[in-house]
Target: BnaC09g38140D protein
Amino acid sequence: MIELLKSHGVLSYSQNGSHFEPKPLPPPIPKKCDWEIDPAELDFSNAAMIGKGLFGEIVKAYWRGTPVAVKRMLSSLSDDRLVM
Ligand SMILES: Nc1ncnc2c1ncn2[C@@H]1O[C@H](COP(=O)(O)OP(=O)(O)OP(=O)(O)O)[C@@H](O)[C@H]1O
Model:
């Protein structure tokens, strides 16, 4: 088992080289993902509704000049007590 863990790089030598120990965990993933956009960059000046679902409406807006579909939660559902 030790050999298997070593071969997968899960174990490494301790600092003084006397024994193997688990590798330190990588740093946590940052909260803001790189695919997350800043809502302030959405341009709704020529927005048009293009669809509606149970929880929200879909509007065509622009992000950095690119047309995008934005789902906006229905205001009737925006009360925290109703959001699951
Ligand atoms: N990316 C998109 N581009 C164009 N139209 C879209 C896009 N996403 C949704 N729509 C339109 O909006 C309608 C509703 O989409 P939505 O994702 O809200 O549906 P839903 O999954 O049924 O909704 P809900 O999860 O709120 O019940 C779609 O049927 C479609 O006509």
